[in-house]
Amino acid sequence: MENKLITEQLQPDFSSALYQVFEIEKKLKKLTTEHTIHRNVDKLKDYFQSLGWFYEIPKGTYNETRTDCDAHISSDSPEELVISEVIKPTIRYRENESSPSRIVRRATVIVESKGIQEEASEKISEKPSMIPSNMNICKFIKEQFSRLKLRFTGNNVSSK
Questions:
Q1: DSSP assigned state of 61
Q2: Domain segments of the chain: what residues?
Q3: Which residues contact 25 (CB under 8 A, 6 or more apart)?
Q4: Phi-psi region of 52 (alpha: psi -120 to 50; beta: other; left: phi over 0)
Q5: What pLDDT is attached to residue 120?
Q6: Nearest to 22 by CA among 58, 74, 61
Q7: What residues contact 74, with CB distance under 8 A and at least 6 apart?
Q8: In terms of pLDDT, which residue wins out, 140 or 105?
């Protein structure tokens, strides 16, 4: 099944641009420090919303009756399925404030059984971050160079 619903009727189609905004926002969440880029992303989202376009990130339980997302099930057990990762968000369009929104493109999600997701999140929370802050990046890089028997001095890399 193709992942678009009403885009033929809507011109211009901003769903690809909204996917890019979603990807930028997703990558920003992985950064350990606050950046002013968040403000720019929010401005982009506000602009698209003023045109009637917005995206939603599906969360929670999953069953076959959900019409807002296409799922890739990564679990053997079909019971208590939850959305573990959002590949692409649900893109919606609303003509005006009083009209209901319509799904333009369904979300693409990865779904697994609730027990498996809880185990994975426990393992992740037990491990400390490999690079806890931007201040440690340089130290981390030097350690990796040292491990590879390379020397890092200023802008130059040489073998030991």
A1: B
A2: 15-127, 128-160
A3: 41
A4: left
A5: 52
A6: 58
A7: 84, 110, 111, 112
A8: 105
